[in-house]
Each structure stands twice: as structure tokens, then as C-alpha cells.
Design a protein that fits this description.
The structure is a single chain. Helix 1 crosses helix 6. The relative contact order is 0.15. A hairpin with a 4-residue loop joins strand 1 and strand 2. The strands form two sheets. Strands 7-1-2-6-3-5-4-8-9-10 form a ten-stranded mixed sheet, with helices on both faces. It has a four-stranded parallel sheet with strand order 11-14-12-13. The chain is about 30% helix and about 20% strand. It has two domains: about 230 residues, DHBP synthase (Alpha-Beta Complex), CATH 3.90.870; about 110 residues, Rossmann fold (3-Layer(aba) Sandwich), CATH 3.40.50. It binds adenosine monophosphate and magnesium ion (MG).
């Protein structure tokens, strides 16, 4: 836990136009004042993120509230007035929490933070320290994941320190490890028609339907190409993202050798992640390729909370290849399947060079 003095220092740093790395329940974020164009440019530069990939605005939920009673309309007024009945149902059911909503933006919202788009993404995180900081700051804060663009997101303060060791003026708050471990679910409501899911996360479409009666569509369920083109460009939608420098591949159940056959020259160490619910895979014959097994949780929530930690730990000299089991079918695995597939696609020594593909 952080003392009030440290939180106050972070608030002052934000007011002075500085950057603060801070935990949210999802992953560590790189926080900056959403109304200050200079520091927003600094966020893009520090992450190495292309300036047309927009940032999420994070807002405080009111203190000591009865969730059903919160009037979000005035809280959102400086950012958007685009609040349909469905939108308010989603907000009342899931804020504060790990649900990001995309709205048509108010004209006062800086184009620098929306990547020039006429939409703005907003979220009220649930993390208690993040909430305390937001309430004291009394304004919106952008908080993209605290990692270099295209690389593995980070869930501990020590990892953020190592990632940005050259950014000397970055204040880093240690709020412990992030609980959820993958980025928020994003729902795009800006078409005013259907709720669309550009990025899966811990909150699933069935949970949304059950709690609010709102149907959520996958982007590919939108029939017309025009509708697809209208979808905002987001970094989480790149084919390659969240990627380690060590090659990463997924293997189907019992098919470790098939995955290895893609790398005939490997003669050093291969990290093979195996479900903790299963016995060793050694009868597969993979030990001949110097494989070492690493257990990963077979529960989707526990898996998500450790996914980036495991990728980060394995993305070290000494490992030539990382193999992960394909996540099982089912909506609750969609968030981690999405991250793992993009991480595979972007992985390898040239990963930072082809994240824009
Ligand atoms: P990150 O900042 O890395 O956690 O990613 C947040 C995601 O929200 C990114 O993929 C953003 O591009 C997306 N996002 C932020 N702002 C908007 C917006 N105005 N319209 C659509 N998506 C957005
Ligand atoms: Mg990110």
C-alpha cells in the first residue's frame, strides 16, 4: 500500500506535467494529465507508440457511493454527451471496473489523445489506489499500458522499472502486482447502434448480456466492409502485439513435437508451458530437444493474472523458444487467447520491427 504522501507526490507530478507509472487492476499504466498536450506527446514518445493509436482516459468514481445512485452524466460531460440508455446500463453495471467504453467525443477532448479520431475511450478503474489518485487529481488521466509499444505488458513495479530504466524522470509507484493481468475489455458504442467488442478482456459478452440485457457483437459480425472500416484504429487490434523477443508458439494438446518441428535448428533450451492440471508431457519425447516444463494455471482467471509475468520471465537469454498450450475453446478464454495469438505473431528477435503489420 502507498502512503498518502506518495499519492500526493504522484498527484503533484501529474499536475506538473510529469509521467507516473501506476498499477491498475489490469496492468501497470503510464499515467499523464489528459488535458496537457505536451505530456501526451511525451507518453507516445516514451512508449514508442505511433501517434494515431489513441489513449484511454481514466476517471474517478465518486467517493463512498452507492453504485446504483451514481449520476455519471455530469462526470462524463467534459468528455462525451453521447450516452444512450444501453451505455448507461453498461456503466452502472461495470464501473468502476475493467470495462472501457468508446464514445463519440466532446470537441474539447484533445485530438492528440484520440489519435485524431472523433471518438474517446473512457474507463473508471476499480483499483483503490488508482481511485484515490484520480479523486485527488480531480481530472482525467491517460493511462496506456506501461511498456514499450508492441512488447509484453507489465504487471509489477519492478518490471516497469527495468523496462524504463533510461527514463530518469519517470515516477514509479509500487502498488503490488496487478490482479487481472490483461488489459480491459473494450466495448465500442460510438456507432450509436450496436455495441461492438474490439478487444476481449476479463468481462465477457455473456456477463454483459446477463447483467444488462445488452447484446455485444464481435467486429467480424458486422456485415458491411464499410462498418469494419469505420471501426477505430487501436493498437490492441494489431496482429502483432504484447510480444516477447524470444520466439513464442502455441501447441495443440499432445502436439509439442509438431510445434518444435518448425524450429529444426534449436539445440538449446525450450520452455514448454504445461497445464497444472495435467501430468508431465515427457512421454511426448520432447526432452530430446532440451525442453523444460513450466506449469501454467488451467483456470482462465489465474492464467490471465500470470500470463505477462510468465512471458516476461521466459523472455530472457538462455531460452531459444517458448511453447504455450493453446487455450481451450470458450468465451472466458477469449482475452488470453487474443493476447497469446498476437504475442506469437509478433515474437522473435525482430519483434519490435514488425509490430505494425
Ligand atoms: P492500451 O493503452 O495499450 O491499454 O490500449 C488501450 C486500447 O484502447 C488501445 O488499443 C487504444 O487504441 C484503445 N482506444 C483508446 N482510445 C480509443 C478511441 N478513441 N477509439 C477507439 N479505441 C480507442
Ligand atoms: Mg498496451
Amino acid at each position: 500500500m502507498q502512503s498518502s504522501a506518495v499519492i500526493n507526490e504522484a498527484v503533484q507530478t501529474l499536475r506538473d506535467g510529469g509521467l507516473v507509472a501506476f498499477p491498475i487492476e489490469t496492468v501497470y499504466g503510464l499515467w499523464a494529465d489528459a488535458k496537457n498536450p505536451q505530456v501526451i506527446h511525451k507518453v507516445f514518445a516514451t512508449k514508442g507508440r505511433p501517434s494515431n493509436h489513441p489513449l484511454i482516459v481514466h476517471l474517478a468514481a465518486p467517493d463512498r457511493f452507492d453504485q446504483a445512485q451514481v449520476d455519471w452524466v455530469p462526470i462524463l460531460a467534459p468528455w462525451t454527451r453521447d450516452l444512450s440508455e444501453d451505455t448507461l446500463k453498461l456503466i452502472n453495471a461495470f464501473w468502476p471496473g475493467s470495462l472501457t467504453l468508446v464514445f463519440k467525443k466532446d470537441k474539447s477532448v484533445l485530438n492528440d489523445l484520440t489519435g485524431g479520431q472523433d471518438t474517446v475511450a473512457i474507463r473508471a478503474p476499480a483499483h483503490p489506489i488508482a481511485q484515490e489518485l484520480l479523486r485527488k487529481f480531480k481530472g482525467g488521466v491517460v493511462a496506456p499500458s506501461a511498456n514499450r509499444f508492441g512488447k509484453v505488458s507489465l504487471t509489477s513495479a519492478a518490471d516497469v522499472r527495468a523496462e524504463f530504466e533510461d527514463v530518469l524522470d519517470l515516477m514509479i509507484l509500487d502498488g503490488g502486482d496487478c490482479e487481472i493481468g490483461i488489459e480491459s475489455t473494450i466495448i465500442d458504442l460510438s456507432s450509436g447502434d450496436k455495441a461492438v467488442l474490439p478487444r476481449p478482456g476479463a468481462i465477457t459478452p455473456s456477463e454483459i448480456l446477463a447483467k444488462t440485457g445488452v447484446n455485444v457483437y464481435q467486429p467480424n459480425e458486422l456485415k458491411s466492409d464499410e462498418a469494419m472500416e469505420d471501426l477505430p484504429k487501436i493498437s490492441g487490434s494489431l496482429k502483432a502485439h504484447y510480444a516477447p523477443t524470444t520466439p513464442l508458439r502455441l501447441y495443440a494438446p499432445g502436439r509439442v513435437l509438431d510445434a518444435l518441428s518448425e524450429f529444426p535448428d534449436i539445440n538449446s533450451r525450450v520452455a514448454v508451458a504445461v497445464w497444472d492440471s495435467e501430468s508431465s508431457l515427457s512421454e511426448d519425447g520432447h526432452r530430446s530437444a532440451h525442453c523444460e516444463e513450466i506449469e501454467v494455471p488451467s483456470d482462465s482467471t489465474a492464467f490471465a493474472s500470470r500470463l505477462y509475468r510468465s512471458l516476461r520471465d521466459l523472455d530472457q537469454p538462455g531460452w531459444d523458444l517458448i511453447l504455450f498450450p493453446e487455450p481451450p475453446a470458450g468465451e472466458k478464454w477469449d482475452g488470453v487467447r487474443d493476447r497469446l495469438q498476437r504475442a506469437c505473431f509478433g515474437s522473435g528477435p525482430s519483434s519490435s520491427g514488425h509490430v505494425n503489420t
